[in-house]
Amino acid sequence: MQRRPNAAGLSPRAVGTAARIVTISLDSVVARYRRNRERSKALFDLLEEDTYYSQPIALRQPVVFYEGHLPAFSFNTLVKKGLGGPSIDPHLETLFARGIDPHEAAVAGSTPADSRSQWPAREVVRQFVDEADRQVMLALQHATLEDPGHPLLDRAEAVFTVLEHEAMHQETLLYMWHRLPLTQKRSPTDYRPRTTGVSPQQEWVSIPGGLATLGVDRETIPFGWDNEFPASVVDVPSFLIERWDVTNDRFMEFVAAGGYKQPEWWRQEDWQWLQAGAVEHPLFWERHRGRWYWRGMFDLIPLPMTWPVYVSHAEASAYARWRGARLPTEAEFQRAAFGSAAGEREHPWGSASPASEHGTFDFVSWDPEPVGSHPQGASAWGVEDLVGNGWEWTSTTFGPFPGFRAMASYPEYSTDFFDGEHFVMKGASPATARELLRPTFRNWFRARYPYVYATFRCAGR
Ligand SMILES: [Fe+2]
């Protein structure tokens, strides 16, 4: 076997042996990293240059941070921590190490700030990015990526952490870009949102009681985040759930009925948030000259009534209460999506790999699509759009499954958020990468965070 030069500056343990990875092929790891980088670059290219230091969402980082953060995280996790390689630039590696959690104070309509003075010039960021990328790529091609018993290389954990981290951030970037002024974005010329269709009459689907598996045992899948492990089986009593997500026209009934002005539908802290921010409707809606519009990524369009409404957990819960219903629990979502009379499925539609006929995900659209557009993606019980077209809020606070252990490659990934303030979202949005569409993947946000591509449906019993 030919020895490779130590071009990435890696420690001796990291080179000299053939790259080895048993969970997926080396070629696919390299291809995934490249594809991630190209997609991230395309997302940054959507922005006009003058947005670089702006902060589209208060208390998230400015645009500049994310351009540095993605390769910095990959370099720090795989090359430095995993393989013991030396630094490129300790200051920039620290500066770009980690974003921050959106706090309560981030209210709708906050003025974007400009943070030019605190951040390096774009040219400096790009030089760092290029070098970090070069070293990560060399490591992926030549280093020993899998090393049983090594805290970060067991089952090639660091590699998958890097790959999924970037894919997840692409969704974060998109919902941040969504808040930038329309004039600061370059719209793809061939893009037209799909707004046709009529909202189907909402139906309740009865899901029989049975077992739902939350989580999975680590050794049974190539990779999962720590909060997905281990498997725990829960018995879910029978319940009702809506066949479709709540659409803009259904949610309009709540707005028109004065729902945002009636404290009885809101938890006290959610009601205070409405008052403090003068919140009167979903953040994605705008009202101009007496008409309702959807604020899309590139355009303001007449509110598409058949699209799932995108709202915070606070708004979803209030609507459900007003309807005399509630949000589903995480276990109910799991049962509705993946359960069947013949046992649990890999995806709502079965075992076929996720494809465009199954739902709106994997960056196929900048916006949602009308509910009912993907009957082929229905679950065994006939519930539609459970994966795709918007994350779905559950009533479950984010917490560990019994037997949880923080992961070595990203120990704070979940544990920082086990605070009872974050709620689990399941499914996927149009901006969720297809590799994240596994039944155990969990997303979570604070109840009053209105920026994400998140919708909901009601449950009852
Ligand atoms: Fe990150």
Bound molecules: fe (ii) ion
- From N to C, what is the helix and strand string? HEHHEHHEEEEHHEEEHHEHEEEE
CA gyration radius, whole angstroms: 22 Å
Report the count of strand segments: 14
pLDDT averaged residue by residue: 91
- Give the overall shape, derived from the CA principal axes: globular
Measured distance between first and last alpha carbons: 64 Å
Oligomer: single chain
The share of residues in extended strands comes to: 5-15%
Number of helices: 10
Largest sheet geometry: 4 strands, mixed
Q: Which class do the helix and strand fractions yield?
A: alpha+beta
Unreliable residue stretches = 1-19, 99-112
As laid out across the biggest beta sheet, the strand order is 12-11-10-13
**Helix proportion range:** 25-40%
Descriptive report:
Helix content is 28%, strand content 12%. It is α+β, with helices and mostly antiparallel strands and 461 residues long. The chain has a four-stranded mixed β-sheet with strand order 12-11-10-13. A three-stranded antiparallel β-sheet has the order 3-6-14. A three-stranded antiparallel β-sheet has the order 7-8-9, with no helix packed on it. α1 packs parallel to α5. The longest helix is centred in the first third of the chain and has 21 residues, at 122-142. Fe (ii) ion (FE2) binds at residues 69, 73, 99, 165, 169.
